[in-house]
Automatic annotation (TrEMBL):
Organism of provenance: Ursus maritimus
Subcellular location: Late endosome membrane; Lysosome membrane
Vps16 N-terminal domain mapped to chain residues: 13-352
Record keywords, A-Z: Endosome, Lysosome, Membrane, Protein transport, Transport
GO MF annotations in UniProt: actin binding
One BP annotation, GO: endosomal transport
Membrane listed as a keyword: yes
Domain of life: Eukaryota
Keyword Magnesium carried by entry: no
Gene encoding the protein: VPS16
This protein's name: Vacuolar protein sorting-associated protein 16 homolog
Length: 764
């Protein structure tokens, strides 16, 4: 690939990742191609169904690493394929013409299939897109009837038929899937017009500041984060703006009117620079808000893969990476320059002095320096040609590189249980559920420190619910079985396990969960088959609900229960109002107020459904707050908490848990700084570690108060610093706690330090 023009764009550094060693018998243009993000594998479906090909030639599905090493090859024995794409879990989704989607593993193992519905089957698939949302990976289909059908999450398949586009008689010139406000949309171009489809309506939209004279849109591209949109017009102009089409960032005239083969975004996270890479048959152009472009001549057929921080470009012979350079070269080498690039260069020159000098600083903790060096060594090692991709630990396991994954865990001193759990859970992707569970049990037995519930949770996270249930049968602790079964919505099985355990507290936990989950009729039908549970529930009612009630309260209770059976909100509210009146007559103001609060919550939930979409009715007050936070409506969640007088501590717990579930670490940090936390900062550490994010947890460990400091440091694995704090506090209980976390040669020095401190204290 030869460079033609160099300009002032900050996007433009391109270097070779690999020299490809694959033996391609056909050009990339003659294959269906899909490359997974984050340096992932490449799938090629050779000989797709084309008229010039002989009918007897069977297509071949091949999967390669990013360096071109073959991972799988299999004859295609199914129907004609229209599109390929990788899910967020690195499963290959193959969309067929009949609307059936076949799912394959990284090594070509068939996982499952699903259908996009009868309408798609009848009208066939013209085109398809695989896209990613915060819920998972989605599939969008354009049918022969020029209608769109999509599912935003193939792991929890719910098909949505999008509204019809008025007057659409042929396929749109271009289209894409967008994600706005946690909802998937379709943006399509018909001549000079753009239409945005959501679940309810088709709306005409106009990009602000678009140059006049456009009669057709030829290509569109959404950024990796789905925040920005680029449109290529038949006038040769490229419009760049926000995906909401409310703001224009810039516009560039490339003076080429031929439709490009591909167009993708190229930018770094949090960078203010915006650029788009456009590819034609033998030309690659990088454009942004600069007056000039950067152009490259393509020596052979190439394919673009958008990444979070750049663009991968691979062809028959090479695999390259194009990304943004933060500052221009002259800024780096200028005398006394304080530009980031100049500082980085200076830091590189001073690296050896820094490594030597840190030994003479009293208060400089070397841990972060050492860990960064370790991480860099790992990243460089796994880029090796025979591994063929910059990988995460989970991706290593998924590629069945178990020994290497274990070596990395040992080198980075990851907890052994965490490493084993990840390996076994990812290994569980393939095979019969019962056989895999049995094989895992045969390998592990009753090994101390290994939790079957942790492995089951990993399997559940991978979409293998039945395998998770089989694994839980080997978990001896009912207290670990039941919560996961409830999370998997296997409440009746959870009830059986809780009853088998004989733990009444555990049974009560499941009963209260069932009461909130099921309607009243199903709830009591479930209890009919479980005499012990029914007996416990009667005791609960006697002590918690019926103890102080007179005839009026019985009437109110009956009316309240009756209200739960109504399907329409109006019927429920009327029944609840009758209940409230009965409670007032019986002078039971507490029950009356609670009933009125329930009526108020129902009306509010109906209003939230009308305004925001989604499901709110029948959620508890706390679940309503959590759902609002998960939907990005924190202000409304806070207002709801004020209206219903939710204590500040409870609100902080709800927001903390919801933001961590979303993995919205930036918003969580802002929330933690909004005011002094009423629950302290240890819960922040605990929640972050529960999500396996030690980097974020460390931010809050430094803010934890002295009385909980040692516990916080141990949670993030900083045993040495925890020991220093415990010694400073002269607290024997804390010293004992730290000593219990010292394992092997790694923490030998810390253990000796604690023992010396104890010996000195005894002498005094």
């Amino acid at each position: 690939m030869r460079r033609l023009i160099s300009a002032c764009l900050s996007v433009g550094r391109k270097y070779e990742l690999y020299s490809m060693d694959w033996d391609l018998k056909e050009e990339l243009r003659d294959c269906l191609v899909a490359a997974a993000p984050y340096g992932g594998p490449i799938a090629l479906l050779r000989n797709p169904w084309r008229k010039e090909k002989a009918a007897s030639v069977r297509p071949v599905l091949e999967i390669y690493s990013a360096s071109g090493l073959p991972l799988a090859s299999l004859l295609w024995k199914s129907g004609p394929a229209v599109s390929l794409g990788w899910s967020a879990e690195e499963e290959l989704l193959c969309v067929q013409e009949d609307g059936v989607v076949l799912v394959y593993g990284l090594h070509g193992d068939f996982r499952r299939h699903f259908s996009m519905g009868n309408e798609v089957l009848q009208n066939r698939v013209l085109d398809a897109r695989i896209f990613h949302t915060e819920f998972g990976s989605g599939v969008a289909i354009l049918t022969g009837a020029h209608r769109f059908t999509l599912s935003a999450n193939v792991g929890d398949l719910k098909l949505r038929r999008m509204p019809e586009v008025p007057g659409l008689q042929s396929a749109p010139s271009c289209w894409t899937a967008l994600c706005q406000d946690r909802v998937a949309h379709i943006l399509l171009a018909v001549g000079p017009d753009l239409y945005l489809l959501d679940h309810a309506a088709c709306s005409a939209v106009t990009p602000p500041g678009l140059a006049p004279g456009v009669s057709s849109f030829l290509q569109m591209a959404v950024s990796f984060t789905y925040r920005h949109l680029a449109l290529f017009t038949d006038t040769g102009y490229i419009w760049m703006g926000t995906a909401s089409l409310k703001e224009k960032l810039c516009e560039f005239n490339c003076n080429i009117r031929a439709p490009p083969k591909q167009m993708v975004w190229c930018s770094r996270p949090r960078s203010k620079e915006r650029a788009v890479v456009v590819a034609w048959e033998r030309r690659l152009m990088v454009v942004g808000d600069a007056p000039e472009s950067i152009q490259f001549v393509l020596d052979e057929d190439s394919y673009l893969v958008p990444e979070l921080d750049g663009v991968r470009i691979f062809s028959r012979s090479t695999h390259e990476f194009l990304h943004e350079v933060p500052v221009a070269s002259e800024e780096i080498f200028k005398i006394a320059s304080m530009a980031p690039g100049a500082l980085l260069l200076e830091a590189q020159k001073e690296y050896e002095a820094a490594s030597f000098g840190k030994c003479f600083l009293d208060r400089f903790p070397p841990d972060s320096f050492v860990r960064m060096c370790q991480d860099l060594r790992v990243l460089n090692a796994i880029r090796d040609y025979y591994i063929g991709i910059p990988l995460t630990y989970s991706q290593l396991v998924l590629r069945r590189l178990y020994p290497l994954a274990i070596q990395i865990c040992e080198y980075l001193r990851l907890p052994e249980v965490q490493g084993v759990s990840r390996i076994l859970a990812h290994w569980a992707y393939v095979g019969n559920n019962e056989d895999v569970a049995r094989a895992i049990n045969q390998k592990l037995g009753d090994t101390p420190g290994v939790s079957y519930s942790d492995i089951a949770a990993r399997a559940y996270g991978c979409g293998r619910t039945e395998l998770a249930i089989k694994l839980l049968e080997y978990e001896p602790r009912s207290g670990e079985q039941v919560p996961l079964l409830l999370k998997m919505k296997r409440s009746k099985l959870a009830l059986s396990k809780a009853i088998e355990s004989g733990d009444t507290d555990l049974v009560f936990t499941v009963l209260l969960h069932l009461k909130n989950e099921l309607n009243r009729g199903d709830f009591f039908m479930t209890l009919r088959n479980q005499p012990m549970a029914l007996s416990l529930y009667r005791q609960f009612c006697k002590h918690q609900e019926l103890e102080t009630r007179g005839p009026g309260c019985w009437s109110g209770s009956f009316s309240g229960h009756l209200g739960l059976l109504f399907a329409r909100i109006e019927g429920r509210v009327a029944a609840l109002q009758t209940a409230a009146d009965a409670f007032y007559k019986a002078k039971n103001e507490f029950a009356a107020k609670a009933t009125e609060d329930q009526m108020r919550l129902l009306r509010l939930q109906r209003r939230l459904e009308d305004e925001l979409g989604g499901r709110f009715v029948d959620l508890s007050l706390h679940d309503t707050v959590t759902t609002l936070v998960l939907g990005g409506h924190s202000k409304r969640a806070e207002q709801l908490a004020r209206d219903f007088r939710i204590p500040d501590k409870r609100l902080w717990w709800l927001k903390l848990t919801a933001l961590a579930d979303l993995e919205d670490w930036e918003e969580l940090e802002k929330f933690s700084k909004s005011k002094k936390s009423p629950i302290g900062y240890l819960p922040f550490v605990e929640i972050c570690m529960k999500q396996h994010n030690k980097y974020e947890a460390k931010k809050y460990a430094s803010r934890v108060g002295p009385e909980q400091k040692v516990k916080a440091l141990l949670l993030v694995g900083d045993v040495a610093q925890a020991a220093d704090v415990a010694i400073e506090h002269r607290n024997e209980a804390e010293l004992t706690l730290v000593l219990s976390h010292c394992t092997g040669a790694t923490d030998a020095a810390t253990a000796d330090k604690i023992q010396r401190t104890r010996a000195q204290a005894q002498k005094k």
